[in-house]
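B., you asked whether I could sanity-check this one before it goes into the benchmark set. Here's the sequence:
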Amino acid sequence: MAMLSQMQLEDLQQDKSGVFAEFLAMEPPAMNGEDILKKWEELYDEQMANVVLKTTVGPSDDTSNPVFPYEKLQAVIRDGGNWKWPRMWQRLDEIERRGTAFREGERLNFAMPNKNTGVTPMRCLVVGGGPVGLRLAIELVMAGHKVTVFEKRRELRKDSGDLSQLGFTNRINRPHMWPFVRNDLAKLNGKDFMSRQVCYPVFTEPETSSIGIDELQCLLLKNALLLGVDFKLGVGYDNARVRTDPKSMMPTWEVECTYDEEAAKKYGREKGKHKETFDCLIGCDGPRSTVRDTQAKYFGNIEKRKFMDCV
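And here's what the prediction gave me:
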């Protein structure tokens, strides 16, 4: 990567600070998950992805010594002239790292040991970009796994502007929250990633605490992107087969998936059916789970009305 002059760095800082402020301000009903993803592409472009950081074990490298996207953004943006942002960076630092995501000697370990030293990094596929899928993706990436989320639901509109197909964050239900969920969202920058109006019903008294599912998804999506989750919108899971390496006898999942036109263009693929390989397959695609329906041999036949989380 070419070195930047001080003036170029200051220009980059100013530019990215403005885009980052727009990224954080996005929330329903004015904006949805697709708007957040588009803004993320503008924020975390090739130039930002190529930023190299100094770590306790040498320069960062996306293959051998990776750092989280938020750490690269923090190094460039810093406080961005906003008094809240240092607190926001600190909260991201405080999310517990485990396995290979834990780097010995880092200040953000707060002198705590690696709780899961035996974690083997895996290529994990999470099917479904709802609250459960996003929160699980965050947990997996914090253990050093490479996490991809497939979410096929893209918002489509007619020429008149009316919705013809709901997007993955077009949801209006508003559930009551347990105290532990509220506390978890506070740790995930809920008070900084959401406006005061949205925060009020979330972080009030436990008896009245609630959050819109669309608001929850957008909050978790921002965290997932900042922590390096690869969110693939417009890619749908179809089926999967277990393949075993004849030499190592290690099993993998050969996943059959479908790319819509926009996803195919973005990822340089042909529109339609494709096969991709993952070490771990997790279905967070709701009560009518395609993952469960296609993998009953491994996941069992779970009664749909009792199944609301993941397999």
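One thing to flag: Residues 6-25 form the longest helix (20 residues). Otherwise nothing jumped out at me.
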